[in-house]
Amino acid sequence: MAVPVEEAIAALSTFSLEDEQAEVQGPGIWVSTDTGATDSPIEYSDVSAYRLSLSEDTKALNQLNALILEGKEMGSVLYTYRSCVKALPQLPDSMKQSQADLYLETYQVLDLEMSRLREIQRWQASAASKLAADMQRFSRPERRINGPTVTHLWSMLKLLDTLVQLDHLKNAKASIPNDFSWYKRTFTQVSVQWHDTDSMREELDDLQIFLSTRWAILLNLHAEMFRVNNVEDILQVLIVFAVESLELDFALLFPERHILLRALPILVVLATSSEKDSESLYKRVKIIRLINIFKNDPVIPAFPDLHLSPAAIMKELSMYFQKFTAQTRLLSLPSPHELPPREALEYPLFRHYLIVNHIGSIRAEHDDFTIRFASSMNQLLLLKSTDNADIEWCKEVKGNVYDMIVEGFQLLSRWTARIWEQCAWKFSRPCKDIVPSESQEASASFSNYEKVVRYNYSAEERKALVELVSYIKSVGSMMQCSDTLVADALWETIHSEVQDFVQNTLATMLRTTFRKKKDLSRILSDMRTLSADWMANTSKSESGPLQHGSEESKGNVFYPRPVAPTAAQVHCLQFLIYEVVSGGNLRKPGGLFGNSGSEIPVNDLKQLETFFYKLSFFLHVLDYSATVATLTDLGFLWFREFYLESSRVIQFPIECSLPWMLVDYVLESQNAGILESVLIPFDIYNDSAQQALVVLKQRFLYDEIEAEVDHCFDIFVSKICDTIFTYYKSWAASKLLDTSFLFALDNGERYSVEPMRFTALLKMTRVKLLGRMIDLRSLIAERMNRVFRDNIEFLYDRFESQDLCAIVELENLLDILKHAHELLSRDLSIDSYSLMLNEMQENISLVSYSSRLASQIWSEMQNDFLPNFILCNTTQRFTRSAKVPLVPVQKPSVPYAKPNFFCGTQDLNSAHQSFARLHSGFFGMPHMFSIVRLLGSRSLPWLIRALLDHISTKTATLEPLITGLQEALPKSIGLLPFDGGVTGCMRLVKEQLTWGTKSELKGEVLRGIKEIGSVLYWLGLLDIVLRETDTTHFMQTAPWLGLLPAADGQILHSQDGGESPIVNLFKSATSAIVSSPGCPNPASFNTLSKQAEAADLLYKANLNTGSVLEYSLAFTSAALDKYCGKWSAVPKTGFIDITTSKDFYRIYSGLQIWYLEESIRVSSNSQEVLGDSVAWGGCTIIYLLGQQLHFELLDFSYQVLNVAEVEVASITQTHKSPHFVQGWDGLLEVMKKARRLNNHVFSMLKARCPLEDKTACAIKQSGAPLHKIKFENTVSAFETLPQKES
Amino acid sequence: MARAGGISNAVNVGIAVQADWENREFISHISLNVRRLFDFLVQFEATTKSKLASLNEKLDTLERKLELIEVQVGTASANPSLFARDV
């Protein structure tokens, strides 16, 4: 038992409770012990202990309070009443015989509902009579009992307000009389069989009258009150009280102000409708004061979606209260819905009600307050950690805290009241001219609720509302958090305020002003008796309670005691002050404190007044957490029972729901400033759910809210993920744009991205939602993982629907995605990019080397690229053939996706697309780079292998065709004679190369050769790219591996068999660390050094990679070996056989001259169909078969060129002016081009794939054959020939 | 006219009030500390939840990585011939 509480609690603060989550939600958890300060938790039973003869008053007070509570319950029953008739089933014709059963069932169901209404009817009757009786008792001129106290006055006002609200609700709810008439009908049907139904019928008639009479409750109350004609006094007191309170604006909490505003017009109506002189009221309260109040607040909130208007109520009531009709001045006030729109705009109050017009000053107030509040909290913390703090400083800090709390309450009250009032104003003025956003909605009619909510808030107003709601919630949660911190400081301050007043101020007053007035000084000393705490005043032992009379004028010094006065004490003090001031006479003219005829000096009156108002503040401050809860409760924004009923729908769509409209606005507006408030509107749902359960006590409302919240939150998460993804995507895309390019651009800022801060939201692991905790961060991470995968999938799908040229765009888009991933990974932990990429590439298996991309590239090459693209040797590019593709390509349609699957925003998409478009028309080096980077070392070998296999299968398919062509050639073909000139040669060629029946094979063979050539050229490009990549790689690793450049491009190893620098570095570092005694974990450093060795080994092995091109040439050569026998006949003589037609070069030669001729004959030349890769294919095969020299000697076109050269030479000799052989210029030109191209190919082949020296036969000068001499593959003789000008 | 006030036994009431102040000091003290205890528990729960959430996040990531590795190992062990050492 001896555990010191203080120390134990203090010890808790040693726990580290840090949490990196930002406070972007309102307060959510309420733990409080005393929420009962405002209405005494023990029902003022302690009041009697003070012996103030207040027992009658206390009894009445408690009775009223109980009635108020009951009335609130009745109010929520009425407010949440939903028509049952709408849900009643109808019987089909086939079941008409059971109609009676249905009536009975219906009756039983409705009876339950109607019994509640009956209860309300009964309750209001008793409440009215009790209120009237209470008023009569306490307003008798010859008063024998003490009271009414101020608390009592308040209770009267509250009960009156409850009755008015109930009445208003009953008038507004149309479904109640509806249900009732149905009920009555079923009753007549059902009751036929019953006996003795007269009393029930009577009761029903009664209820019907009650339900169908407007203002029935009020009329009843009026009747009750004026049964004995003496309540005018108390009504006037109440009016004066209400008017003064409103004018001084002293109500700390806005609900109190609203109660006064709602009750006042009713009080005025009641007071002026009495039999007696109705003008006596205006003697106490000038009518202009009333009119001002009604004018300033033309619309008062009553229920969430129901408002009251004093002007309208008074107008309506004037029909029921004949006397009131005389009050023309009050009746001429315009009610808000009567104001025409234009006039309303000019009406100053229109501006007053809208938050937009105040948001600037609210923002300033908020910023200022939060800073000062935080600083005063810090001061308090500092004070608590200081021992033996100076008493004055202590008092100052705590006083400051008290002031801050009161100021906070005032701010919160003002702000929340603004929201209530704006809502009421909006409800009173539905949107008249709706601009439908979508065309299909134009025809639909809008429900009333849409008019007052959905279309009634402009974007600006929504923004202001979000801002204000988040201010309220954040200040609320800030104050809520410091609840237990400030509690004792508040108690202490209040204690010292009270003590200061009763011990010092009152003492002074007793000595001076009230010395002569026995009555008054007795009251004052009673005040001291019932609240003074003399013993806290420990230091001054000599200044006991009895010596106060002889004290000096300077006040006592108090020792603080952190205990607050009880509700009963405050209640009694207020009563006594009121007694002093009013002199116990209710009839006194004038106001409460503005009483000039009083015998009390102004100065003292002022002091009493201040303290009087402070007392009512104290209660709310003591009720700290309950007050914060009331002031930050915004649940009313969701409720729409009244409109639901009038709209005849079950529930409104979420687009009409104000909280969701706010969330949606924040998401859609992309406003970085309010983004972090996006969770705040969900607090409105929390509040409304709380209200539905605790205040309205309706399960079905909670269920509806829950369903809506679930739905909204799902949409919210998906929308916020979309926003986040788009933002990071566009950020990445704009960073990847060329900066110098952007700088030069006029509209470069279009491509920059406004920074947004998602960090706070991404840290939210506990979103409070309807008592649940939701891990938003993990939800977002989950979705991000999915959306990144979807995006990769989409990019691949898109690539698959395009041709191979799109690879550059694909790489660019993947780069953007990767960069976006990198940026997002800083704030959110998501799967690594390579993992996702591998997964989407279907590349996870350790034993599969192909990937989705690689196989796509391969199939694309097979089906589209190789058949339909042609090579241009000069530009090193493949372009799509202009002709209709021979092989039709079937591709999936381009998938559609939102802009954020590309680069984020539309602008960035178009920017990146214009770059991508540059590469979309051809295939060249940039594409090869992209392929190498995208496939990487894992899938590239697979692709190379597939291509090489393609070469060998292509050769295999060519083989029978070539055999066929071989058969079509004449058995022997001689050299072309020079005599006939070019013309003769060509004739001879044509005679020999008729091809006979096989001429249709020509095209096919050429295409085959072209594909082989394309593959080889493609591999050549790949080789160049790989070389470049390898070189870069080498440059990066060389210093670590200790490689030094030496002469002739050789590589020297710096360490001569020792270890490379990287191994050395890690080894020495490891040994140094391990040797030091402080090393905690030497094993891991040893591992590190071992890993360095492994890296060294791996990188060294990678150094001398071979050439892809050389490898593929060797592979092709090996593939051709099979056909060597068929395509190159070894001459039997051992000498070169110049007439043979069996060799491959002959076929190719014939094909070449055919297509050269063809190319100039046909306007759309066949060159375009085949391109330069034919030469690559043909020449490579010729070269690899070892027929290069034969070809160069015996090719038809070469021979023709030789003949032409001779011919030209002879012509130039005879004629002075050189010109070409007539008619053959075109052909000769393309022949020359072909020869140059062939030479290029041969020289490249010789460089990359030198053939071993071949043996051949030669003829000596003497003419004798020389067998098996070795000759080198030399540069073609034709290359050394002098070139004619081309 | 009956004036309000008039505590019939002022001295006794004064003594009782004084005792009441002292008793209530004790009550306030206890209730405040109970509330502080509550506050601590609420905060403790909140931070613990946060910490658990971050732990969960790490475990999730690890789990997915492990799954991937399992699949990879699975593909490898399904084709033992590829990894068999040539004898």
TrEMBL record, chain A:
GO biological process: regulation of actin filament polymerization
Pfam family of the protein (one): FragX_IP
Gene Ontology molecular function: small GTPase binding
Protein name: CYRIA/CYRIB Rac1 binding domain-containing protein
Organism: Rubus argutus (Southern blackberry)
UniProtKB/TrEMBL annotation, chain B:
Keyword Transport: no
Alphabetically ordered keywords of this record: Coiled coil, Cytoplasm, Cytoskeleton
Keyword RNA-binding: no
Entry GO MF terms: identical protein binding; protein-containing complex binding
Localization of this protein: Cytoplasm, Cytoskeleton
One GO BP annotation of this record: cell motility
Coiled coil segments of this chain: 45-79
GO cellular component terms, semicolon-separated: cytoskeleton; SCAR complex
Main location: cytoplasm
Family: Belongs to the BRK1 family.
Protein name as annotated: Protein BRICK 1
Species name: Rubus argutus
